[in-house]
Design brief:
Length: about 400
């Protein structure tokens, strides 16, 4: 028996274009004082990254698979196929890399191998939606002599920042963005660190720009309020903050709600039926009664576990703020109800029992970008370490 442990050294979240490093440790768990014939042998081990695509049959119409090239060897249990037994289609994979051949482990002995691969920049981000799913995994295959291959799958998350792959790094190392707190010994590590630093700088530049956006909210009867938001581009993990000024309105607003939503739209060429509805997901919600309120605000957090906006040939994901307002048809003075006198001259106001109201909604598109993958690793549902017993 051999225990195989795969550990992602930096956590389970990465930016496309970064280098993924995984330490693969193999150990013979038998005690050192076991008999000599207790040694264990493995013929070989190999590793490969792949992205698995899943589509909802009720929402997505995919072209029929091409079965003209039938690979007989892939059906054999002695051939390394990383996505063997998984649902969906493998839409992206890296070249397989051999970790070792003919490994012998004595009782209590262990050996560690390092696997490193740059994540492709042309793939989709990790996403689990109602119509499609994009799932990334590192698969490690190990085989004993004359035995089937055993697969250890390590899921991880990929964030895609568009435009990052087109950046040309400076030739002069002195002016290249770098992290002074990291010890970098190899050129690959330097480039990977510079890529992460550059991504942080680009995200900071895109999301730190503040520009006052003012909107007048009105219905068919007049102005309800004015709405203010300081930016419309965010990173996942940030808070969307906005303020209302109802004192500038002519129509009394009784209640409002704000929903932070994603809009998942299947491209027209892949829709199961023409004009099928768009799928919406709500990630945060704020609701408030605001009658006789002059000013108020809301703050909606963008979950670190959510996917930033993206677009592929099959689906597009966008973010928006969905506002819903309940307004009264009567003037504000008519909504105060009646007053009754009490002891010591106290006055008690009673609200009206019934009123006629109007409701309407408004959608404000916003842009949501990725965040630092180290932050995303803290809330990832994927473990950094996975084990298998052969």
């Amino acid at each position: 028996m051999i225990e195989v442990c795969a550990a992602l050294s930096r956590g389970p979240a990465f930016l496309a274009g970064e280098a993924l490093e995984c330490l693969v440790t193999l150990r013979n768990p038998r005690p050192p004082d076991a008999t000599p014939d207790a040694s264990e042998m493995l013929a070989w081990a190999s590793a490969q990254i792949h992205c698995q695509f899943h589509a909802s049959e009720s929402r997505v119409a995919l072209p029929p698979p091409d079965n003209s090239r039938h690979d007989v060897q892939a059906e054999s249990e002695t051939v390394f196929v990383p996505n063997r037994g998984e649902r969906g289609q493998c839409i992206l994979s890296t070249p397989p890399k051999i970790l070792f051949c003919d490994l012998r482990l004595d009782p209590g002995e262990s050996k560690t191998y390092s696997y490193c691969e740059t994540l492709p920049v042309d793939g989709p981000p990790s996403f689990r939606g109602q119509a499609v799913k994009y799932v990334y995994k590192l698969t490690i295959g190990c085989q004993r002599v004359n035995s089937p291959i055993k697969l250890l799958r390590v899921p991880f998350r990929v964030l895609v920042l568009h435009g990052l792959q087109d950046y040309q790094f400076p030739q002069d190392e002195a002016v290249a963005p770098s992290n002074p707190f990291l010890e970098e010994d190899e050129e690959g590590a330097k480039k990977d660190s510079r890529l992460a630093d550059l991504a942080s700088e680009l995200l900071m530049a895109a999301t730190s720009r503040r520009s006052l956006h003012l909107y007048n909210i009105s219905n068919s009867r007049g102005k309800v309020a004015s709405f203010c938001i300081f930016k419309t581009v965010y990173k996942i993990g940030e808070d969307v903050v906005g303020t209302f000024d109802f004192s500038a309105g002519d129509i009394p607003c009784l209640q409002y709600s704000v929903n932070l939503q994603t809009e998942e739209r299947v491209q027209e060429a892949f829709q199961r039926r023409r004009g099928q509805p768009v799928s919406y997901g709500t990630h945060a919600r704020h609701q408030e009664s605001c009658l006789h309120t002059s000013q108020t605000s809301f703050s909606l957090p963008i979950p670190l576990s959510s996917a930033p906006g993206f677009s592929t040939n099959i689906v597009t994901l966008k973010w928006r703020l969905r506002f819903e307002f309940v307004t009264a048809r009567e003037a504000a003075e008519e909504l105060r109800g009646g007053a009754s006198g009490g002891q010591a001259g106290a006055v008690s106001w009673t609200g009206v029992e019934q009123m006629d109201v109007d409701t309407f909604s408004w959608d404000l598109p916003i842009k949501v970008l990725p965040t630092n993958p180290l932050l995303a690793s803290y809330v990832s549902q994927f473990p950094s370490t996975n084990t298998l017993t052969i």
